[in-house]
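Appendix B. Raw example, untouched.
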Amino acid sequence: MTDAQQSPDEPEAEPKPDPEPSEAAAASAGTGTGPAVSETFAEGMAAAARRAGFAPAADGEPVNGHALLAAMGGIRGLVEAVLPGLVFLVVYTLTRRTIPDQSLVLSLIAPVVIGVVFLILRRAVRQTVTPAIGGLFGAGFSAVLALFSGNAADAFLPGFWTNGVYGAVLLVSALVGWPVLGLAVGFLMNDGITWRDDPSKRRVLTVLTLCWAALFALRLIVQLPLYFADNVEWLGAAKLIMGIPLYAPLLVVSWLVVRSIYPAPGSAGTTSAGASED
């Protein structure tokens, strides 16, 4: 019976209480953006793990050449990662003695031109241009630093800063008990931070984080002396050798380790993310 049809003598029905809000809604009402921040953080950490190449491990893919290549961005990703540095090294080496006055400019412009070509190619085939833009910005910034100082070795300064920051963050996170790799893999595997309650997972993910920190530290240990010695040719070669050739094996090892502590969906021993209790 509607309100318009209700008899005047009939007692007025008590209004039904609104359904109790869920815990998530209650938390949202109390903190405003609490769940949104948590979800955003989780998505961000999972995205970081995917970019690092751990998504195939989460999907249960076998470790093979095709999967490894895909984790590193495919053929295009490898070319975009290696070619600018290789072009810089070749151009600088060929022109340093023949045309020394123009060697610096030519060797710095060449990677920028390569970056522009990559950007145009990605746009032409309607692929995401974010990697190309990042590479172009990096090449351009390095070129500006070197041209401003007049020293070709200064083109490697952004790489030193990047390795230093990444290595420091990874090292500190492992030492304080919140390894970055654990956070990224945990959210990628829908495990959140419950891996911290498992001593085995916590230990393994801490060791992996320290291994990645060691990679960045090793690059600095090898390359900084070459920079201070102004040995640009060997510095360029060291950067290429300590790039993909070191990154790929460590990625494979990390991939295998993650698969060992997070069995593929449907395999024996697989548990749901929320199965563990405090």
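End of appendix B.
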